[in-house]
């Protein structure tokens, strides 16, 4: 069995990240990039992913703790950072953050078929943002889809959001390590666009 | 990380592995020779990794036709002296149970690990059964890892334990362990034996009554020896945070929640973590109980260890309070998390535990239930069948849709609502036979290609022989889809990626003597509807095979070829009849706030079936 000391250098403070999005948006890929970068830094990291029945279209949640933690699941109100890949999904996981959490929200909604069928409702975007603003002190809303398009492919919106996230104060891993991890986790042919999307996301913090 | 690194990364290196990936590495470090499975979430990724690396690792791997076969393949390998590994989801062990129980009796020569991935909270399962009880029913040693590192390490330990006592070993993970990623320190990969030799010994391997009476006795003797191992194992360890007023006994994923709550709140408690938990290490637990004032048992799902602890308390006439599920300190059902464990502990310690402000929202949130993917051929099958039913003026209340375990059960969602009864793998046809006998309603059984091979053939034989009047729709999407896309006997590739004979569903159906067997590509909606109309009017067993590759396959092929077809709606032609939205219900099609109907290009798969559905021909390839 592993000795405690084998599990990497431990941080005194645990940094807790919640990601939420819709299947197909690349939530898990973004999470893996952060997690591997944390490991490269010599930190302990535990992460929880969703697999199985949630195919494209379902809510996808990953949560993780970087530092001296055993469980990947984040206590309610304890997330330091949340990246919401879709506006209504930010509200779905609102129980995980507090007023001092950094919350990054992609402003492009994904309307599920249940809304078209009239069996569920999508809230007015303005009221979603208003509610988030009243609750969260460090709220960053970006149009990741538009920025990704400018970078060359809307598919890379997950890297836009990742770029913004790592530029927030207190994020425990350097930009260089994240980029290294991107190189190891993304297909070489799309790396250029993804890096461009990431840089554009990174510069959003200054603009916001 | 690339999948191949699970095999190639050297000793001393570390990888950020999923629990399921760690199981693969553990098997490789343990010198495994043969691996078998039937895919089932949350264990599926173990097979996905072996599919990609088994060839290079020199390990034999197969997707067996069901869990019972998978277990038998591994059991025979272990009887031949090879190390074998069979894994499945928790309910898969029910399918394998008959041979599983007997294999514990016969024992093995090479190490054999049976991994059961339980699913607390039933994220993708039909029940919440706790297979630690199965370990007790079978009399098999049980290991419970808490994180990917332990999954890997316990694989190696499990093989050694299995060989020492010539008995298979059960490893129980849960969804949160199988799908948890963590840093894993690696050991060396050990090449397993290529072939074994089976030494004949009918007294050991034939479960005739005269032999099993001896096997039963031997099993009990083995278990009492293994119990001593468990009592002396470093896998069962105490974490002492000072203080003796409370001792917490825990295992698996629950241990992680306990540790996070204890550390965050700086609680002075003792924790007993049991990773080698059956036979229950009585002496270890007794010593622990004697060193604390009160006991709390934290475990997922059933109060299994709690009952064991109460038995020890009773046996030794100890007067101490045991908190857990039975007294309501912790919830009886569903997966735990740090908040649940914290509120349980808060009830019994004299300390205010950290509680944070909890936000909630009153805004309506859109439902995102699992649905058939854009481009899914099952949507075409469902749409064509629904149309045939309407054309024949059959009433919905006169039809029973008997569904099965697979993506097509997602047609339970509106507008299709085509799943009225569904209980287990392969049940659609057997249940259909019962309804056909018990009612005058028209029975339609849905079953996928993989599920048909798994447990659908035998009930189809039953339907034909017992002259049932049912329509069996076999949705052959050329893959085991719901678990993420594994091969099955119906496709020309095996579990190692090698060419393999393609078992014909059509020939099997004809072989049963079913009076009506037709095969159709459901993407041709008109033809499919015509065949369904014929089949619905057929008296007896009618089999319709709708054959079209899963959208996951076609998407991957298109990506490889650089093909990207998207459909869009010509807003001039569109009459807003909403047939594509309300009747066809592809998740890529949606209504804008201004009332116009649009297709989300990010979701559109380019299958073009919606274009056949549109009466105005307003759906066209996007230029």
What percentage of residues of chain A falls in helices of 4 or more residues?
Answer: 25-40%
Low-confidence stretches of chain B: none
* CATH level-four homologous superfamily name of chain A: Pyruvate-ferredoxin oxidoreductase, PFOR, domain III
The secondary-structure class of chain A comes to alpha/beta
CATH class membership of chain A: Alpha Beta
CATH architecture name of the largest domain in chain B: 3-Layer(aba) Sandwich
What is the CA-based Rg of chain B, rounded?
27 Å
What is the overall pLDDT average of chain B?
Answer: 97
Please tally the β strands of chain B and state the result: 23
User: What class do helices, strands and sheet pairing of chain B give?
Assistant: alpha/beta
Give the % helix of chain B.
Answer: 25-40%
Summed up, the domain count of chain A is: 1
What's the number of helices of chain B? 22
Short characterization:
Chain A has 208 residues and is α/β, with parallel strands linked by helices. Chain A is built from 9 helices and 6 strands; from the N terminus they run E-H-E-E-E-H-E-H-H-E-H-H-H-H-H.
Explain what this protein looks like in three dimensions.
The complex is a heterodimer of chains A (208) and B (623). Chain A is an alpha/beta fold. Chain A has one domain (13-207): Pyruvate-ferredoxin oxidoreductase, PFOR, domain III (Pyruvate-ferredoxin Oxidoreductase, domain 3, 3-Layer(aba) Sandwich). Helix content of chain A is 40%, strand content 20%. Chain A contains nine helices and six strands, in the order E-H-E-E-E-H-E-H-H-E-H-H-H-H-H. A six-stranded mixed β-sheet of chain A has the order 2-3-1-4-5-6, sandwiched between helices. Chain A is globular. Chain A starts with 14 loop residues before the first strand and ends with a helix. With 623 residues, chain B is of the alpha/beta class. Chain B folds into four domains: 5-231, Thiamin diphosphate (ThDP)-binding fold, Pyr/PP domains (Rossmann fold); 236-346, Rossmann fold; 377-557, Rossmann fold (3-Layer(aba) Sandwich), CATH 3.40.50; 564-621, Alpha-Beta Plaits (2-Layer Sandwich). In chain B, 39% of the residues lie in helices and 17% in strands. In chain B, strand 2, helix 3 and strand 3 (60-63) form a beta-alpha-beta unit. The mean pLDDT of chain B is 97. The chains are: A alpha/beta (208), B alpha/beta (623). Chains A and B meet through helix 1, strand 2, strand 3, helix 2 and strand 5 of A and strand 1, helix 7, strand 8, helix 11 and helix 14 of B.
